[in-house]
């Protein structure tokens, strides 16, 4: 196969499009330390979050596995994991699991460092710099697109996304799949009302049944809890943007995933079991969704937005695509690919898909996205044990 | 295939609504095939307009699929939104 982009080879065979040093908080209490270490180490990104302590059962596993997954993401060269010392999601546990991917990983707890936070920051910078020096020796090499794991995301949607940016992204998702790569569609509450169409694309009966069980089971749970989904989706912003019902929103939303067959469903922290298009069980908050996509190995995320979104991710570059002419002008600094000429009637979806493809290839080769330039490293871990979701884990 | 007509887009030939691609003033006209439609309200970018009269209980179609069930009679040229359309899937399929 022709080598198509320049990436970073990882020891486990995966390929990164960035070469980052992840500075990871095991627990909320050390976020300030992690942030300040990341500020001082070349190529470092902070992975901070409000969790890590007093969690148990599936909630504990989900947070732990998300942090491990982020460290294992192919865009990460190595990691420094910082804990406080008394939490159950320990720095050691996270680090030992990231090490399984044969990356350089260091870890320590703040309570073990004499001198408190300032000393811990200094220690983290020394450890981070050591890994960073090693990272800079690794050079980009040519790879084919089968190494791409594309995360599909939409946020701040209006009814323009469904007719412009989403179908354009769908063409690119199909292309990655055709080249032997992987594409992942998250945000299952935005598939509701399109179940009949998704089921037709399932590779076999078992996958079709899983899609049905997920969506109907979720809505049954809500009903049992006395929650009316009509008041949840579409969101107030969606409605202002012209989306009236969940099925209208979902029809536009699933257009991001093109027409490829659906290989299966994966859990929030579960890697796809093969190439092709996968559905990830995740409830539809942009940052939770992108955190999950990065934690299961997405090396690039494409996010369409109608009303405008600034969000980024510390390990996977986020490419913003917008078809709303007003937003493209108003929030130009947050948009990577302006596809509003579709909306203005000047170009076709197919033509703008090519513009997106050119930009995506540049991003794969190292060109920074707007969210990267602005330094946005958003992390939110889905608490998938909240009441409506607790019976939904895949069999 | 979606078809663009002036400042509107119709996503599928079977649809009974169009989407405005810019803000449209009340009284504007849209020419679709032999039929001329007068827009009955001011319409914002991204919002939908009825291509024909749609009775209460009937479906609005966009992308060639139902996007909901009509809750009060809609006249040709009317703005279609939450005041006259609700989810058919949630109402009939899962009975929420």
Question: Could you characterize what this model shows?
Answer:
The complex is a heterodimer of chains A (395) and B (96). Chain A is an alpha/beta fold and 395 residues long. Chain A folds into two domains: 20-137, Response regulator (Rossmann fold), CATH 3.40.50; 145-389, no CATH class. Chain A has helices at residues 31-40, 57-72, 91-99, 116-137, 165-178, 195-201, 205-224, 236-240, 246-253, 286-295, 325-330, 340-343, 349-364, 370-373; strands spanning 5-9, 15-16, 20-25, 44-47, 76-83, 105-109, 141-143, 149-155, 182-185, 262-266, 276-280, 300-305, 318-322, 337-338. The radius of gyration of chain A is 20 Å and the shape is globular. By secondary structure, chain B is mainly beta. Chain B has a single domain (3-93), classed as Archaeosine Trna-guanine Transglycosylase, Chain: A, domain 4 (Roll), CATH 2.30.130.110. Chain B is built from one helix and ten strands, in the order ββββββββββα. Chain B is globular, with a radius of gyration of 13 Å. The mean pLDDT of chain B is 91. Chain A binds chain B through residues 158-160, 162-163, 192-194, 197, 216, 219-220, 222-223, 228-230, 239, 241-248, 251-252, 306, 324-326, 343-345, 349, and chain B through 2, 4, 7, 9, 11, 19-22, 44-48, 62-63, 65-68, 80-82, 85-90, 94, 96.
List the helices and strands and how they pair.
The complex is a heterodimer of chains A (395) and B (96).
Chain A: E1 5-9, E2 15-16, E3 20-25, H1 31-40, E4 44-47, H2 57-72, E5 76-83, H3 91-99, E6 105-109, H4 116-137, E7 141-143, E8 149-155, H5 165-178, E9 182-185, H6 195-201, H7 205-224, H8 236-240, H9 246-253, E10 262-266, E11 276-280, H10 286-295, E12 300-305, E13 318-322, H11 325-330, E14 337-338, H12 340-343, H13 349-364, H14 370-373
Parallel strand pairs in A: 3-4, 3-5, 5-6, 8-9, 8-12, 9-11, 10-11, 12-13, 13-14
Antiparallel strand pairs in A: 1-2, 1-7
Chain B: E1 3-5, E2 8-10, E3 17-20, E4 29-32, E5 35-38, E6 48-50, E7 59-62, E8 65-70, E9 79-80, E10 85-86, H1 88-93
Antiparallel strand pairs in B: 1-2, 2-3, 3-6, 4-5, 6-9, 7-8, 8-10
């Amino acid at each position: 196969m022709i080598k198509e982009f320049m990436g970073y080879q990882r020891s486990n065979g995966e390929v990164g499009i960035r070469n980052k040093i992840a500075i990871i908080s095991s627990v909320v209490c050390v976020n300030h330390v992690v942030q300040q270490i990341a500020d001082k180490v070349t190529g470092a990104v902070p992975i901070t979050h409000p969790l890590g302590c007093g969690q148990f059962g599936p909630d504990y596993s989900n947070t732990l596995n998300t942090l491990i997954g982020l460290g294992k993401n192919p865009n990460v060269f190595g990691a420094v994991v910082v804990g406080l010392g008394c939490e159950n999601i320990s720095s050691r546990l996270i680090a030992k699991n990231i090490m399984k991917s044969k990356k350089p990983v260091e870890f320590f707890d703040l309570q073990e460092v004499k001198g408190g936070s300032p000393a811990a920051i200094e220690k983290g910078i020394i450890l981070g710099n050591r890994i960073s020096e090693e990272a800079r020796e690794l050079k980009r090499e040519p790879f084919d697109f089968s190494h791409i794991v594309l995360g599909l995301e939409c946020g701040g949607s209006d009814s323009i996304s469904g007719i412009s940016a989403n179908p354009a992204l769908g063409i690119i998702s199909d292309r990655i799949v055709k080249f032997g790569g992987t594409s992942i569609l998250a945000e299952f509450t935005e598939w509701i009302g399109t179940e009949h169409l998704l089921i037709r694309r399932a590779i076999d009966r078992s996958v079709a049944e899983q899609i049905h069980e997920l969506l109907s089971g979720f809505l049954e749970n809500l009903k049992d809890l006395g929650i009316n989904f009509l008041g949840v989706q579409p969101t107030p912003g969606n409605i202002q943007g012209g989306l009236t019902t969940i099925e209208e929103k979902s029809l536009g939303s699933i257009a991001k995933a093109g027409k490829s067959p659906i290989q299966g469903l994966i859990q929030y922290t579960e890697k796809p079991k093969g190439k092709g298009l996968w559905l990830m069980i995740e409830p539809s908050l942009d940052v939770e969704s992108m955190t999950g996509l990065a934690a299961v190995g997405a090396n690039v995320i494409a996010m369409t937005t109608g009303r405008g979104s600034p969000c980024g991710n510390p390990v996977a570059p986020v490419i913003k695509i917008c078809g709303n002419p007003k937003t493209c002008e108003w929030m130009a600094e947050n948009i990577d690919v302006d596809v509003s000429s579709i909306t203005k009637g000047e170009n076709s979806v197919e033509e703008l898909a090519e513009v997106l493809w050119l930009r995506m290839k540049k991003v794969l080769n190292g060109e920074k996205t707007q969210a990267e330039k602005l330094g946005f490293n958003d992390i939110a871990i889905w608490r998938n044990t909240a009441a409506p979701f607790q019976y939904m884990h895949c069999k | 295939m979606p078809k663009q007509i002036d400042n509107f887009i119709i996503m599928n030939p079977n649809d009974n609504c169009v989407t405005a691609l810019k803000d449209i003033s009340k009284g504007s006209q849209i020419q679709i095939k032999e039929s001329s439609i007068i827009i009955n309200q001011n319409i914002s970018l991204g919002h939908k307009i009825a291509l024909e009269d749609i009775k209460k209980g009937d479906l609005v179609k966009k992308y060639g699929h139902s996007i909901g069930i009509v809750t009060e009679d809609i006249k040709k040229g009317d703005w279609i939104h939450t005041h006259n359309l609700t989810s058919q899937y949630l109402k009939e399929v899962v009975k929420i």
